[in-house]
Specification:
- The chain is α/β, with parallel strands linked by helices.
- Helices cover about 40% and strands about 20% of the residues.
- The chain folds into two domains: about 10-210, Spore Coat Polysaccharide Biosynthesis Protein SpsA, Chain A; about 210-255.
- It has helices spanning about 20-30, 50-55, 75-85, 105-115, 145-150, 165-170, 180-190, 215-230, 240-255, and strands spanning about 10-15, 35-45, 60-65, 90, 95-100, 115-125, 135, 160-165, 195-205.
- The chain is globular, with a radius of gyration of 18 Å.
Amino acid sequence: MDTPLAPKVSIMMCTYNRAPLIKEAIMSALNQTFSDFELLILDDASTDTTAKIVHSFQDSRIRYIKNATRQDIAKNRNRGLAEARGNYIAILDSDDKWSDNEKLASQIRFLETHPDVAVVGTFAHTINETGQRNGDIRPETDPLRIKRNLLLRNNLINSSSLFHKHLAVLAGGYDDTLSGIEDYDLWLKLGRSHKLANLPLFMTDYRIHGGQVTKRRLRLAIAHFRLVKRYRRDYPNFLAAYIKSILRIIRSALFIW
């Protein structure tokens, strides 16, 4: 029996109890004009109707993998890296969606003509829980400016990103002690020896959920402080990033105390 050819792109969709949103995310992937991909749906032991919704799609490119017990987002992403068969990894979290059917095609063309770039993202519209657009995110596009500011802020929107799988694996994948900020850590690892870029095109809808939990905000602030210390010798603006991360921790802690 012939082994099916590996796809060029593995779309990695991590999910947990996102049944009301995942159908829209899946459709935005399947509607891409570039079709040589697999859609890896990595379900972290959902207890809702996620499995039923996924199985309602009759598309051989979908691979549904469900954890028997809850892991966490970083471990789930690492499982996706291990399972992925494509040369490129595209991230699309199950509460976000791609708003332009040419997204994958445009990004693949960019990476193939810019071999020194490890990751390429896009601009994004922010959307609320009902899918209404309520803002824009315009990260830096120039690789030099991205590197100059990367320690200060994450300049890549996760669900907009497309990157070389082998480079991510060589970098060690996702740090599972940094769940919630593991994507930022990966960009910092890749950015030490490769360029990062963004297309100045709105191709992604990034969902911002209301009612952020203050303890989670503090945990992410502390994780950012760890990243600043970890990469202080690799990027400029360490002092500014250090001060910013300390202030972020203080502000987050005040919400709790």
